[in-house]
Amino acid sequence: MSMPPLPESEPAPTLADPHELLEGYLDHYRRTLLRKAAALSEEELRSTHLPSGWTPLELIRHLQYVEQRWLNWGFAAEQVPDPWGDRRSGDVRDRWHVPEGMSTQQVLDAFHAQCDRSRQVTAAARLEERAAVGGRFPTEEEAPTLAWTLFHLLQEYARHVGQLDVAVELAGGGTGE
């Protein structure tokens, strides 16, 4: 699994700028997700040991779409052809999936591309700035701030990286950080 060159640890404990801190932790969780997934074989990436049935590769694809929904479609109000493309039928209540024939490298490339695009969307924006109207949010009243959106993404990653940690352990891999 290839990763773009990023610092290997959490942001520095002396970092006080909230924007840099949120972005730094988001990158930290992205790296942690990929590092944990890299410990799995191709077969384990596409297998599940969980009653809910999701696979680690499906989880990576899901997080790609989570970022797209919240930052591209949500914050930037970009028109996204299939914002729920991580779901089997496109129904938000449906299970995550990786389309038949999609390789692990294709999933990883799409994830990396989305992370790069997410960084572009957030780089010049201010934390107090509200999401643009016309994408995910039809009215200004519904549009969250960038700070809220980044914090929401962090909790998504924290939860899902913890779930991946359990999946890696069940597959016979290591535990913890």
From TrEMBL:
InterPro entries (UniProt xref): DinB/YfiT-like (IPR034660), MST-like (IPR007061)
Name of this protein: DUF664 domain-containing protein
Gene3D superfamilies cross-referenced by the UniProt entry: dinb family like domain (1.20.120.450)
